[in-house]
Amino acid sequence: MKVIQHTAEELRTALVSNSKDLAKIYSKYTKEERCLLEEGFHSGQPGSLFQPITVHSDSDWISAHPEEPQDFESFYRDSYRRTPDASHNTIYIQTIGSFGEVGALTDQHVEWLRDYCQAFFYGLSVKLLPAVTVSETGCSFRVNSNSNNLQILTGDLLRFLGNKKPKDAFCIVGITMIDLYPEDSWNFVFGQASLSMGMGVFSFARYDDNFYTRGYAGRLKKRIQPRQGDYSVFEGYYTPPITSTLLLRSCKTMTHEIGHMFGIRHCQWLNCVMQGSNHLEESDRRPLDFCPICLRKIHVSVGFKIAERYKALLHWMEEDRCQTSGPETASHPATCFPKPTEAFHTSQQWLCRCLDRLETGNSRSHQTQEQSAQRHAGCTGVEGRSIVLSHIHQRSWRDKRRRESSCTMCSVALQAADKVTLTM
Ligand SMILES: [Zn+2]
Ligand SMILES: [Zn+2]
């Protein structure tokens, strides 16, 4: 395991910049906010809120995909980056296909995702578009010849999203529980985005704990060759159960991918939700939130009070876990689904500690996690679970049009057992 430890000076330059105009903007943060942001300079020290990046193997993103690091200044001066404005300030989420076997729970899961994104990109509006079936998108699909599960073609979905994008959209994000492929020669893809068009589509199918097991219920029982245009094969098709881990992974993926829409590139500074990820184990290792440098990038794009954003995220994790879905009618009794936030406990505690820093302005606070937790109700809990799927071997998608489309888990993966050769 290798630790990427930048010096405090390097991190200061990456965060504040040596340019006078950017340093002046930086000085407008409150003392407490600067105190929190500058915690990153002491990453890895006892009590620090931010940790250095650790590289566990050559298959980790940073080793496999050397990229130019993006500091705050290069982000700020990137003329291609997109920023929400008064008439383009809504993030739209379009669900494609079923999101669960129980209709109301499906709706609830998507609402949890929406609410999480709204807290994460605090100040922007996040709206759900009415769900569509796979057939409504008119997309091509296939049965994967190795894993024998259904897959839909990303390019067709992006075209569909492009036509659906509302006028006030900052971006539109399609999400689906069905596996994706970008072209015939590829085994699969987690997602694909067009950053210049502000749209992307992402699948959570492989976040199912059982996806890589023999018993995965999404494998079709018989080898069938579905006819293009006959979408009946999707009726009643398996979707993963909404577990706490699945909710955590889907929140993390959504916010990482939407982060790219703002022009934020993969983080190489500190442990951060914007770190690139080459495989599920690496993705599980990433934290849920931004490092100080990426936080400044999103802050300058959206504009919010840092403490208010953290409070909104904490509220999402703590709010009544039993929510009622839909209005109650005689034929449709309201159903109560507990929000499975067990896997968010580590993040919850971290948010409490950040809020403490913002309230006390004490960068080397001696408060323990327990003391911090007592100050913010609901902050006790267990460590988030990290699932290691060591048998997954993935290779990422190097997009030739780097500025157009790039991404985390917008990467192609191969199971070790697969015999497919990728064309890069
Ligand atoms: Zn970062
Ligand atoms: Zn990415």
Automatic annotation (TrEMBL):
Cofactor(s) needed for function: Zn(2+)
UniProt keyword annotations, A-Z: Hydrolase, Metal-binding, Metalloprotease, Protease, Zinc
GO biological process, one term: proteolysis
Transmembrane portions of the chain: none
GO MF annotations, alphabetized: metal ion binding; metallopeptidase activity
Superkingdom, natural source: Eukaryota
Similarity annotation: Belongs to the peptidase M54 family.
Role played: Probable zinc metalloprotease.
Protein's name in the database: Archaemetzincin-2
